[in-house]
């Protein structure tokens, strides 16, 4: 049975976004060791860096040249940084982090030390909005990766899945401490997973009719946003827990992504 390409794009967006729901369930009902979360962060960072540098930026440059690529790349990073700064003021600075950082930020929100209400649940909602901020550019990348030949970038899906898993873990744990029910938490993250699938679908359908320069700039925007996200949220958590092993684990993630991309050629 042959499925249309747009449906396949949406499906892979759902798969990558499902890590948020899986992580949320694990974070709510179990206690996952911080070292394991940190290792996933570091490995996923390496995979993402490889994907955006070897695939996304190269593809953007080939389609739109240096100007469109550079403007999109810096613009994506700037837009992400601005939105991330706003969310940080509402208690989502450490949304991909766990343990002490999550607890300290939640206590700051409750004490009114951040510009938020007095409820820890607002912190949890900010974490969820932050997941959308991180997930939408990543999911669009999946759709854009299918524009060239109709085949999904397996490396991109794996990388995004690995970056989403710890986010669901830490955010759901925060919502649990704020008193939210498991139904609320799981439905919320299921909704974000669906939005990830829609973003991937739109990444393919919306931009398939645009010029090469527009597609190139959009690809670079997504790449810039993802790299800013890695630097702001993933690497700090990985280093905070894994310390001296962070570099090695990140390199291994980069290598795995590099090998997979070459095997797919």
Automatic annotation (TrEMBL):
Transmembrane segments: 6-29, 36-54, 66-87, 140-163, 183-207, 214-235, 241-260
Single Gene Ontology MF annotation: zinc ion transmembrane transporter activity
Keywords: Cell membrane, Membrane, Transmembrane, Transmembrane helix, Zinc
Membrane topology type: Multi-pass membrane protein
Subcellular localization, as worded in the UniProt entry: Cell membrane
KW Cell membrane (keyword) present: yes
Origin superkingdom: Bacteria
Residue ranges, annotated region (Disordered): 96-122
Keyword Glycosyltransferase listed: no
One term under GO cellular component: plasma membrane
Chief place of localization: membrane
PANTHER family in UniProt: ZINC TRANSPORTER ZIP11, ZINC/IRON TRANSPORTER
Family stated for the protein in its record: Belongs to the ZIP transporter (TC 2.A.5) family.
The protein, known as: Zinc transporter, ZIP family
């Amino acid at each position: 049975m042959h499925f249309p390409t747009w449906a396949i794009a949406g499906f892979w967006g759902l798969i990558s976004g499902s890590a948020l729901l899986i992580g949320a369930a694990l974070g709510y009902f179990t206690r996952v060791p911080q070292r394991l979360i940190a290792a996933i962060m570091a490995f996923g960072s390496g995979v993402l860096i490889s994907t955006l540098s070897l695939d996304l930026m190269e593809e953007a440059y080939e389609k739109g040249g240096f100007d469109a690529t550079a403007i999109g790349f810096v613009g994506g990073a700037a837009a992400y940084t601005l939105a991330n700064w706003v969310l940080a003021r509402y208690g989502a600075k450490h949304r991909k982090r766990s343990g002490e950082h999550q607890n300290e930020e939640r206590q700051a929100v409750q004490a009114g030390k951040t510009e938020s209400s007095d409820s820890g649940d607002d912190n949890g909602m900010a974490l969820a909005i932050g997941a959308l901020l991180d997930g939408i550019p990543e999911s669009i990348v999946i759709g854009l990766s299918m524009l060239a030949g109709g085949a999904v970038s397996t490396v991109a899906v794996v990388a995004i899945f690995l970056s989403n898993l710890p986010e669901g873990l830490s955010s759901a744990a925060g919502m649990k401490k704020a008193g939210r029910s498991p139904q609320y938490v799981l439905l919320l993250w299921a909704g974000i997973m669906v939005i990830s699938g829609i973003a991937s679908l739109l990444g393919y359908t919306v931009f398939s009719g645009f010029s090469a320069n527009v597609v190139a700039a959009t690809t670079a925007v997504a790449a810039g946003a993802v790299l800013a996200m890695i630097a702001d949220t993933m690497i700090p958590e990985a280093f905070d827990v894994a310390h001296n092993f962070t570099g090695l684990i990140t390199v291994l993630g980069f290598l795995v992504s590099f090998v997979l991309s070459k095997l797919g050629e």
